[in-house]
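dude i think i finally got it to work??
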Amino acid sequence: MIKGGIPTIFVSDMDRAVSFYTDTLGMKIQQRFGNNWCSIDAGDGLTLGLHPAGPNKPEPGSRGAISIGLGLTQPLDDVVKTLKERGVAFEGDIIDDDAVRLAPFGDPDGNEFYLWEYKK
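look at this
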């Protein structure tokens, strides 16, 4: 049902963040969609997702500025249904973004997670 994932890091300046992770830390860009998203290969299977801060987004460095996205082996709607039956409280409806669909939720301590699937 859940397979892999990606931590999302909200950043105030995409170019500066990409430069830090690549030039300074020596990581590699996997994909970049302008200033909207950048996937960074951190090695050994870890990918970091950089997302711009903005309205209705956490302030970089604040609570919620890092959330963990979990990949799926089943359709998002099916997984959300199953997890709701198991007591997971999702934060609103599924978000239908440009290239992905997202379902945000929290763990019992308020740590932020989201389920995601690429649109077909």
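The chain has two helices and eight strands.
im so relieved honestly
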